[in-house]
Amino acid sequence: MSRRILLILFISFVWLAVGVSFNASLCRAGSGSDVDKLDSVDEFSEFDDEIVEVNDPLEIINRPIFTFNHNLHTWVITPTARAYRKVTPSVLRIGIVNFFSNLLEPTRFLNSCLQGRFAEARDTLMRFLLNSTVGVAGLMDPATFDGMKINERRFSSTLAYYGVGPGPYLVIPFYGPGNPRGVCGLVGDTFVSPLFYMVGGDPIVVVIVKASKTINQTSFRLGEYEKMISGALDPYIAIRNAFTQHQLGVLE
Q1: In sequence order, which ranges of 2-50 are alpha helices (DSSP H)?
Q2: Fewest C-beta atoms under 10 Å: which of 1, 33, 73, 77?
Q3: Residue 172 carries which DSSP code?
Q4: Closest listed residue to residue 192, CA positions, set 141, 128, 97, 123
Q5: What is the distance between the alpha carbons of residues 190 and 185, in angstroms, rounded to a whole number?
Q6: CA separation (Å) from 156 to 79, 123, 184?
Q7: Residue 77 near residue 21, CB atoms below 8 Å
Q8: What is the mean pLDDT of each run of 10 residues along the chain (252 residues)?
Q9: Which residues of 226-245 are buried (b: 16+ CB within 10 A; e: fewer)?
Q10: Residue 115 CB contacts under 8 Å (≥ 6 apart), including other chains
Q11: Tell me, what's the pLDDT at 209?
């Protein structure tokens, strides 16, 4: 029994590590290109010199977690993604990006409806139907070629729409910068995504799928995290300020 519990705990930690990745390094907004459809937040700009008001009462806890995430990204995720990039054709990697992005369309559709953005919900539904059929289960993206842009609506933005505050700044193990509202939103996004039901309850399948997704995403972002913190006197502050600025920009 104890071995089974230890196995479950181990798989849970691995799932977190490979499932969400280090989101501070996988960030770039945009519409149109396949790479820009990575289901992570936008690229953080350099905000080292800006004064940003941040609610960070847990800094004494956040800093060691940041260090752990930094080392994980530097010594595990990045080397694996670099090797993967060398042996995997770009057309296949882009197809994987398209596939996972298409699986997020039901989440985007539901949250557009919850926010009363029914025109966006209609466009999102049309994107999903077109890419799931003509686009061969989302591996291709004919909807973008037709000028149908992605409408990024998640549960975190729905909570914000109805007045839920972000709460204090958090650094989450294996995940990166966030806040309580974002964590709740991530849970909602997970349960709505078809991927959650496709992988079922098999922890081995979950690990394989999440690892494939994370490494594939990171292969398009090699060097971006390092560039973002280069020259920063305090990388923790740089990432925290960038995340806060991004959140303000998204909700404007």
Answers
A1: 2-19
A2: 1
A3: E
A4: 128
A5: 9
A6: 31, 20, 7
A7: yes
A8: 44 42 40 48 38 82 96 93 96 95 95 97 96 95 93 94 94 91 91 84 77 90 90 92 79 50
A9: eebbeebeebbbbbbbbbbb
A10: 153, 157, 158, 161
A11: 85
Give the Cα separation of 232 and 47 in Å (integer): 9
Residue 1's CB is within 10 A of a number of other CB atoms, namely: 5
From its phi and psi, is residue 244 left (phi > 0), alpha (psi between -120 and 50) or beta? alpha
Q: What is the pTM of this model?
A: 0.76
How does 40-65 read in b/e, with b if 16+ C-beta sit within 10 Å? bbbbbeebbeeeeeeebeeeeebeeb
- Asked whether 225 and 163 are in contact (CB, 8 A), the reply is no
Distances, alpha carbon 100 to alpha carbons 3, 178, 212, 237, in Å: 34, 22, 11, 31
Q: Write phi, then psi, for 178 (nearest 5 degrees).
A: -170, -165
How many whole angstroms separate alpha carbon 59 and alpha carbon 42?
Answer: 23
Only one residue has tokens 């998204």, namely: 250
Cα separation, 20 vs 213, in Å, equals 9
> Which long-range contacts does 92-96 make (Cβ < 8 Å, 24+ apart)?
93/216, 93/219, 93/220, 94/34, 94/35, 95/139, 95/140, 96/212, 96/213, 96/216
Give the 3-state secondary structure percentages of the chain, helix then strand then coil, rounded to 5. Answer: 65, 0, 35
- Which DSSP helix (H) or strand (E) runs through 171? strand 170-172
